[in-house]
């Protein structure tokens, strides 16, 4: 069993819930410290309530458990961020600075920072968006992710802190619900379909976005963190792709299982955000450096989502 002690912030969120379980399997339940802003009374393992804007509170947990790795997932996402731009900037940056500084000062060896396709905006090729494209985001969330990517590189170069990062596409999973993102429709739609209800989509039918299935994104995250240090050539954040689709294509995939399922379209403020993002991603650096390869397609993801949601809600 490895000697790592892992701290996860945002452990009760969409990704945190699943990543925590995977890391418990890999490193042993006692070696994973899950934290979140709110208590989690049903949690199996070690859970600490933590406000990651509080430097001393993070430091206390890092020292108490002799933490060696941190996965910093706590953040306000793209759509919610636009409702409260200044506090989103404050929260996203303060929490990350706290993680970087506590790590630098108290012997944390590795940090994972989730970036996002939200770092892209104007002046990009929206098809197969390249790793080195312009980073002129349209949201405060995206701005905070671009800044976070650059701070990751700075802490690596200046202090040798091994910060690693992926630009996450929209994540789809049956285990948990997303909160406040622009890609959330791709999870919500399944919850309606399995209840034999129709869905009103907040993006237009032709809005193509990069997405990824939960199993793939968790594997990518852990593979990146496990990769030999010398393999990591990108110290800002890696482009990562699963598959791309639009709501009409996802509806068709769901209709193969639920032929009567119908979607109506009522685009809201999130449409503008989605229109500024890539349609597909060139992830050749991740493939080359740490052998990234997605397993799921839109059809295999759809079947797996429906099967698992049916079990979960039966
Ligand atoms: C969001 O929609 O804000 C997130 C993301 C793509 O980072 N899912």
Automatic annotation (TrEMBL):
Organism: Lutibacter litoralis
Residues annotated as domain NAD-dependent epimerase/dehydratase: 6-232
Pfam families: Epimerase (PF01370)
Gene3D superfamilies: NAD(P)-binding Rossmann-like Domain
Family recorded in the similarity comment: Belongs to the NAD(P)-dependent epimerase/dehydratase family.
Record protein name field: NAD-dependent epimerase/dehydratase family protein
UniProt-listed InterPro entries: Epimerase_deHydtase, NAD(P)-bd_dom_sf, NAD(P)_epim/dehydratase
């Amino acid at each position: 069993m490895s000697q790592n002690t892992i701290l996860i912030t945002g452990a009760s969120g969409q990704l945190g819930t699943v990543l925590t379980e995977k890391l418990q399997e890999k490193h042993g339940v006692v070696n994973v410290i899950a934290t979140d802003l709110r208590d989690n009374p049903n949690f199996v393992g070690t859970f600490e309530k933590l406000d990651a804007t509080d430097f001393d509170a993070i430091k206390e947990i890092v020292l108490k458990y002799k933490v060696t790795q941190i996965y910093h997932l706590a953040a306000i996402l793209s759509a919610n961020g636009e409702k409260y731009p200044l506090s989103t900037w404050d929260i996203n940056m303060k929490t990350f600075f706290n993680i970087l500084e506590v790590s630098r000062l108290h012997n944390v060896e590795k940090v994972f920072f989730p970036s996002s396709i939200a770092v892209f905006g104007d002046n990009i090729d929206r098809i197969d968006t390249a790793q080195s494209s312009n980073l002129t985001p349209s949201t405060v969330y995206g701005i905070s992710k671009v800044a976070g990517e650059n701070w990751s590189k700075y802490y690596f170069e200046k202090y040798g802190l091994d910060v690693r990062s992926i630009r996450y596409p929209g994540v789809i999973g049956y285990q948990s619900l997303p909160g406040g993102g622009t890609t959330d429709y791709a999870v919500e739609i399944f919850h309606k379909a399995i209840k034999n209800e129709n869905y009103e989509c907040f993006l237009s039918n032709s809005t193509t976005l990069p997405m990824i299935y939960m199993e793939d994104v968790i594997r990518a995250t852990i593979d990146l963190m496990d990769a030999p240090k010398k393999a990591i050539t990108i110290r800002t954040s890696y482009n990562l792709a699963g598959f791309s689709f639009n709501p009409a294509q996802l509806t068709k995939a769901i209709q193969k299982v639920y032929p009567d399922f119908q979607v109506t379209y009522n685009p809201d403020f999130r449409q503008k955000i989605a229109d500024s993002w890539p349609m597909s991603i060139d992830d050749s650096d991740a493939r080359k450096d740490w052998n990234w390869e997605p397993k799921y397609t839109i059809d295999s993801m759809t079947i797996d989502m429906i099967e698992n949601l049916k079990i979960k809600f039966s």
